[in-house]
């Protein structure tokens, strides 16, 4: 059964009791929460994802619960915990869904060392993937959100999971994280995109999450073969342009954006070497999403 | 004290990995969570693998053990490299530098190092040389974290270590001690005696480790004097490994007893043996337990300690809480600080720590 | 007197692509990864079979490089750094 097929009331109820067991391929996650609005956000963002039986093995157990104490009645706080341990400082309950998404990223980054984990967006077309490593402020998410509505399949906005043996990259087709000006930019560029209501005052400013296109969610278990590494950089007023980048520098850019490159030692070094070797590597500057889409259209043409 | 409450799944699995054969997915789910919270996921994975049982673990589940083992292996390599660099930095002082805890287990090839996740490296040096040690470390790139005057004094005068250091380039953490319990603690350790029978690490001068008996006594001290119990169960397993390493029921217990008395740690040993035996069933010599009865705490004190420790030493996971656990854990925190610091200083310190926490409370995720 | 050598099997620790200015070095002992200039590749290939002194390195390089390059200065920059990161080793001779 898909999450989207469960009624809102039923969802809230189950979420607050034993929680929901949700497939987030390649993982299975148990989510519990006593914040009612979280059920609605989950239904909106993960409608296409399947629910599993309550007695299944879960890779991560996460909870977003109201913090105890008097504050609950006038300025409620919520806390994220994983495996029962509180992981972050409590935040205003209004931010509970963004906190859940961050928390899930954290769980994967901290534990899933069967992959080489890279902080990057991944999009795919014709069986070939572009990896977009993401230093802060690169505009990667905005670009990703735009491109997945212009012929590219979303694998990931934040977490690229590289299988070091096969060389293929996996994604989770989870919602794309947009902030501040990007929210309006995407609403403009993709009027049909489904976004959560913007959440103000997070430590990254105002944040909204964009649902992965349904096709991406349905094909989430399909990995892709990396063919391009593109280091994006948003610069106001810049014309969209791809500049070839040295492979040695691309290597370092990816290693710097990797959560667990150093854990894998020599094997990580070799796996990244093979990745960079097989890809065409570029820097990309842009300001207009339409121009960017046109440039990306030309990739592999 | 009975074990009628039953041992948690994690403890049963650690003591007998074959117990995992035929676990349902739901039970594996519980076990992985307990192990993760207790910092024993890699240790359990190692035990399963050592007995060839990893092949019977469902593939999805084994991925978690494998990840933990990978992390542990990486950290172990890091610690080995770091320890060598510490040795080089302090070589010309010609004073023994004693590795403690995790680094000691690792460098002496002790079973307790299997699947261990390390955080800091702890070293022990003789008190008169500590200023030179501090200087030599700073010359080689170590520095102190930013601390205000109060915390600097807390560490130097009242505790038993320099404030925590880190290497400015590598970012690794180092704690330098001159005894194993603070000078203000209620239990007085004969530190000079610790230096009497050190074991040199071949090819790694000036690095040493404590003798096996002293190492065990240090683990016992650490277990009983620590406030935060996140590592309580793991520390208990360390003790179990060390007791078995000394020979279990067949060990030279007289030697262990003599060292305990010489160091002033007989009562600590009594309690540590008590909890390891009851909670893990560790084999140990009866004559040793009988000999230690003389230093057992009074009946009421013993009941209170039992209450606190049987709860505190379970995996810190909701599935393992017994009634009274919250109280037990906060009791341990207060007890541990009480053991370290006289009452009037403790009140001041706890008061100050609470204020500090409120002032620096940020509102962004870690 | 001091000489330098490269103790690593270069194919195991270096990644280089034709025509690029930089090369990636992985130190298996420290686990660190470094981006170094392609000049480092040249040096390691020269110093892998045997240790050479600074004078010998200069002599070898003078044959292959343009003469207006300030070789001693180049070596002064690279040799210490490459030793610190563990690509090269200093050996007394």
Keywords summarizing the entry:
heterotrimer; B: 366 residues; alpha/beta; Beta Polymerase, domain 2; seven-stranded mixed sheet; 16 helices; 7 strands; 55% helix; 7% strand; disordered N terminus; C: 93 residues; alpha+beta; three-stranded antiparallel sheet; 4 helices; 42% helix
Fold blueprint:
The complex is a heterotrimer of chains A (301), B (366) and C (93).
Chain A: H1 8-16, E1 20-24, E2 27-33, H2 36-45, E3 60-66, E4 77-82, E5 85-86, E6 91-92, H3 96-111, E7 116-125, E8 128-133, H4 140-147, E9 153-156, E10 159-162, E11 169-170, E12 176-179, H5 181-189, E13 199-202, E14 205-210, H6 214-218, E15 225-234, E16 241-244, H7 247-256, H8 265-278, E17 280-286, H9 289-297
Parallel strand pairs in A: 2-3, 8-15, 15-17
Antiparallel strand pairs in A: 1-2, 3-4, 4-5, 4-6, 7-8, 7-9, 7-10, 10-11, 12-14, 13-14, 16-17
Chain B: H1 9-15, H2 25-37, H3 41-50, H4 59-90, E1 97-100, H5 101-107, E2 121-124, H6 130-139, E3 142-144, H7 149-158, E4 165-167, E5 173-177, H8 191-194, E6 199-200, E7 207-209, H9 212-225, H10 232-245, H11 253-263, H12 266-280, H13 286-292, H14 299-312, H15 325-340, H16 343-359
Parallel strand pairs in B: 1-7, 2-5
Antiparallel strand pairs in B: 1-2, 3-4, 4-5, 6-7
Helix pairs in contact in B: 3-4, 9-10, 9-12, 10-12, 14-15
Chain C: E1 2-5, H1 10-13, E2 14-16, E3 22-26, E4 33-37, H2 38-47, E5 52-53, H3 54-64, H4 71-84, E6 89-92
Antiparallel strand pairs in C: 1-5, 1-6, 2-3, 3-4
Structure report:
The complex is a heterotrimer of chains A (301), B (366) and C (93). Chain A has helices spanning 8-16, 36-45, 96-111, 140-147, 181-189, 214-218, 247-256, 265-278, 289-297, and strands at 20-24, 27-33, 60-66, 77-82, 85-86, 91-92, 116-125, 128-133, 153-156, 159-162, 169-170, 176-179, 199-202, 205-210, 225-234, 241-244, 280-286. With 301 residues, chain A is α+β, with helices and mostly antiparallel strands. In chain A, strands 7, 8, 9, 10, 11, 15, 16 and 17 form an 8-stranded mixed beta sheet that branches. In chain A, strands 1, 2, 3, 4, 5 and 6 form a 6-stranded mixed beta sheet that branches. The relative contact order of chain A is 0.13. With 366 residues, chain B is of the alpha/beta class. Chain B has a 7-stranded mixed beta sheet with strand order 3-4-5-2-1-7-6. In chain B, helix 10 (232-245) crosses helix 12. The radius of gyration of chain B is 21 Å and the shape is globular. Residues 1-5 and 354-366 of chain B have low confidence and may be disordered. Chain C has one domain: Outer Surface Protein A, domain 3, CATH 3.90.930.60. Chain C has helices at 10-13, 38-47, 54-64, 71-84; strands at 2-5, 14-16, 22-26, 33-37, 52-53, 89-92. In chain C, the strands form 2 sheets. Chain C has a 3-stranded antiparallel beta sheet with strand order 5-1-6. The relative contact order of chain C is 0.27. The model of chain C has no long low-confidence stretch (mean pLDDT 87). The chains are: A alpha+beta (301), B alpha/beta (366), C alpha+beta (93). Chains A and B meet through helix 3 of A and helix 2 and helix 4 of B.
């Amino acid at each position: 059964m898909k999450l989207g097929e469960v009624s809102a009331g039923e969802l809230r109820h189950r979420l607050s009791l034993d929680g929901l067991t949700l497939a987030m391929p390649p993982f299975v996650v148990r989510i519990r929460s006593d914040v009612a609005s979280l059920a609605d956000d989950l239904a909106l963002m993960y409608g296409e994802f399947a629910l599993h039986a309550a007695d299944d093995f879960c890779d991560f157990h996460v909870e977003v619960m109201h913090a105890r104490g008097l504050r609950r009645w006038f300025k409620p706080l919520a806390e994220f915990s994983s495996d029962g341990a509180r992981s972050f400082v409590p935040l205003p309950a209004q931010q509970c869904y963004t906190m859940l998404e961050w928390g899930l990223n954290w769980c994967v980054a901290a534990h899933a060392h069967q992959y080489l984990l890279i902080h990057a967006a991944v999009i795919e077309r014709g069986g070939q993937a572009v990896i977009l490593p993401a230093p802060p402020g690169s505009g990667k998410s905005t670009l990703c959100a735009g491109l997945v509505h212009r012929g590219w399949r979303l694998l990931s906005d934040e977490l690229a999971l590289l299988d070091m043996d096969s060389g293929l990259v996996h994604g989770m087709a989870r919602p794309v994280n947009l902030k501040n000006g990007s929210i309006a930019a995407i609403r403009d560029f993709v009027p049909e995109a489904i976004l959560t209501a913007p959440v103000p005052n997070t430590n990254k400013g105002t944040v909204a999450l964009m649902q992965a296109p349904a096709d991406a969610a349905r094909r989430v278990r399909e990995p892709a073969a990396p063919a391009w590494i593109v280091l994006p950089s948003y610069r106001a007023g810049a014309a969209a342009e791809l500049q070839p980048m040295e492979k040695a520098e691309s290597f370092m850019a990816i290693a710097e954006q990797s959560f667990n490159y150093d854990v894998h030692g020599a094997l990580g070094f070799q796996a990244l070497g093979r990745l960079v070797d097989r890809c065409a590597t570029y820097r990309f500057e842009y300001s207009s999403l339409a121009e960017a889409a046109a440039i990306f259209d030309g990739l592999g043409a | 004290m009975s074990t009628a409450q039953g041992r948690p799944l994690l403890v049963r699995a650690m003591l007998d990995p074959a117990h995992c054969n035929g676990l349902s997915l739901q039970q594996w789910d519980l076990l992985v969570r307990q192990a993760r919270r207790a910092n024993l996921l890699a240790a359990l994975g190692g035990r399963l693998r050592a007995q060839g049982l990893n092949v019977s673990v469902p593939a999805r589940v084994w991925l978690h053990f494998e990840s933990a083992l990978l992390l542990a292996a990486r950290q172990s390599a890091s610690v080995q490299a770091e320890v060598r660099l510490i040795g080089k930095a302090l070589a010309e002082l010609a004073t023994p530098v004693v590795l403690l805890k995790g680094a000691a287990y690792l460098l002496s090839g002790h079973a307790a190092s299997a699947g261990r996740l390390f955080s800091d490296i702890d070293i022990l040096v003789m008190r008169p040389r500590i200023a030179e040690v501090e200087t030599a470390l700073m010359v080689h790139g170590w520095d102190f974290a930013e601390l205000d005057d109060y915390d600097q004094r807390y560490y130097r005068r009242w505790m038993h270590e320099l404030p925590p250091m880190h290497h400015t380039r590598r970012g690794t953490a180092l704690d330098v001690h001159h005894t194993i319990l603070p000078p203000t603690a209620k239990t007085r350790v004969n530190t000079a005696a610790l230096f009497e029978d050190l074991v040199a690490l071949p090819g790694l001068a000036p690095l040493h480790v404590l003798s096996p008996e002293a190492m065990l006594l240090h683990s016992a001290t650490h277990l009983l004097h620590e406030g935060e119990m996140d590592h309580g169960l793991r520390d208990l397993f360390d003790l179990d490994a060390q007791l078995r390493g000394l020979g279990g029921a067949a060990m030279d217990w007289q030697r262990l007893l003599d060292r305990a008395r010489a160091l002033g740690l007989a009562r600590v040993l009594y309690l540590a043996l008590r909890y390891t035996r009851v909670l893990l069933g560790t084999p140990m010599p009866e004559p040793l337990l009988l000999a230690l009865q003389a230093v057992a705490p009074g009946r009421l004190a013993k009941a209170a300690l039992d209450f606190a420790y049987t709860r505190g030493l379970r995996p810190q996971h909701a599935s393992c809480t017994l009634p009274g656990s919250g109280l037990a854990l906060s009791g341990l925190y207060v007890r541990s600080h009480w053991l370290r610091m006289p009452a009037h200083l403790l009140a001041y310190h706890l008061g100050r720590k609470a204020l500090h926490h409120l002032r620096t409370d940020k509102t962004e995720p870690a | 007197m001091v000489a330098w050598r490269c103790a690593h099997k270069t194919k195991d620790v270096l990644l280089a692509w034709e025509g690029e200015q930089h090369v990636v070095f992985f130190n298996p002992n420290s686990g660190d990864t470094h981006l170094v200039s392609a000049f480092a590749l040249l040096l390691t290939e020269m110093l892998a079979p045997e240790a050479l002194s600074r004078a010998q390195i200069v002599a070898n390089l003078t044959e292959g490089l343009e003469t207006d390059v300030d070789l001693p200065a180049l070596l002064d920059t690279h040799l210490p750094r490459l030793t610190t990161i563990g690509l090269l080793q200093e050996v007394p001779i």
